[in-house]
Amino acid sequence: MDIPTSADVVVIGGGIIGVSTAYHLARLGAGKVLLLEREHLAAGATGMSSGLVRMHYDNPIEATFAHKSFPVFQHFDELVGGDCGFVSTGFVRIVKPHNLERLKANVAMMQELGIETRLVSNQDVKAMAPYMTTDDFALAAYEPHSGYADPHRTTLGLAQAARRHGAQIRQGVEVQGIQLKGGRVQGVHTSKGAVATPAVVNAAGPWGARVAAMAGVELPITPALHQATILEAPPQVPSPHLTFIDRINGVYGRSETGNLTLAATSVGEHDKVLEPDELDSFSHAPMPRIQFQALERLCARIPSMATSPVRPGHVGVEGYSPDGHALLGPVPGIEGFYLATGMSGHGFKEGPAIGQALAELVLHGRTEVVDITPLRATRFAEGKPYQGPHAYQ
Ligand SMILES: Cc1cc2nc3c(=O)[nH]c(=O)nc-3n(C[C@H](O)[C@H](O)[C@H](O)COP(=O)(O)OP(=O)(O)OC[C@H]3O[C@@H](n4cnc5c(N)ncnc54)[C@H](O)[C@@H]3O)c2cc1C
């Protein structure tokens, strides 16, 4: 299919962030919105995402993004259309003992934001999940309605909704250059021809630094692999079971369709760091070393998983910033160039609200969802990495 020769806004990248941005732009009346994806929708981090949908963060910006995205997952059919595969299982976050006071402060911060969460005792967790070992922590954070969703269905649903609002989506089109003149965006060069546009959103995920370089902008994004291990749940573990992040053992887990469990080492551990030129050639095959590590850690929390048969897992690539938070906002000195990249392992659950924030920014020059200024890409050069007041250590 041909691509249009002009657009009011071009969004680069068809992961959750790109489709969500395109959807909100089209919904809010941004005119001709064109999303360009070099492979297919959800071809990058999104398609491999573990899909955890929870709101616990140790900083108010990400907690707000997750909170404002949550209703979209819960009421997807009503708000977007279709089924995003959301399963509400309840969620617990277990932190290392030295972070206990921070846990209390963060739960209080989230309650103030209106997030439905509370502290529960280890006995409460045992009552909810008798299959878990709970004698190594006193308190955990609990979200009764959180769980997980299907990243493919979510992305495709948002893309359909974007199309219904008039956005055009072209797959198999690679953006190869960004045309600038007098400090303003003029258009993009693509594998299928040129598109004139005054506004470009870089939602290229782990490829975000490469796309930014097309406009002469250097971004600190490290691409790294993150692996999901799948195993059969034993009879004593119900399906679906509690979704959890266990920072004592460095593992998270959730149910997967068909009596399976998905487990992975903590996001941010960087199962394997990639060189930028490996971004197009890395293997999606599970790494046995990481699989072993994830299983060992999972069994420390759910001992009955020790004899569970392991099924093929998968590996995805994610782009991480130096402080572990996204790069969001306008690019100083280049009018019409916006960043929504470097999601650092959190982008799926925050995608609906991040897309809304980007659309608001492009259309109105400011965001209603939450102030994203602390996540400006220049914060590192300014020596101001972002951190919540009670960041876990
Ligand atoms: C294994 C794994 C598990 C995860 N688990 C969770 C989780 O449980 N919960 C959670 O919230 N987050 C999770 N994440 C993180 C989350 O999936 C990502 O933050 C999110 O999907 C990033 O979305 P994105 O749209 O920014 O990037 P991507 O999904 O990578 O999309 C970027 C797209 O841009 C395209 N592109 C790149 N260059 C170009 C170009 N030049 N022209 C056109 N298109 C281009 C790519 O093909 C790609 O499709 C996980 C990530 C991984 C890898």
Describe what this molecule looks like in 3D.
The chain has helices spanning 16-27, 45-48, 60-74, 76-79, 100-113, 122-128, 151-164, 208-213, 288-301, 347-364, and strands spanning 9-12, 33-37, 52-53, 87-88, 91-94, 118-121, 139-143, 147-148, 168-171, 175-181, 184-190, 193-196, 200-202, 222-232, 243-246, 251-256, 260-265, 272-273, 310-320, 327-330, 337-341. By secondary structure, it is an alpha+beta fold. Strand 11 (184-190) and strand 12 (193-196) form a beta hairpin. The structure holds flavin-adenine dinucleotide.
Comma- or semicolon-separated keywords:
393 residues; D-Amino Acid Oxidase, Chain A, domain 2; nine-stranded mixed sheet; 21 strands; globular; binds flavin-adenine dinucleotide
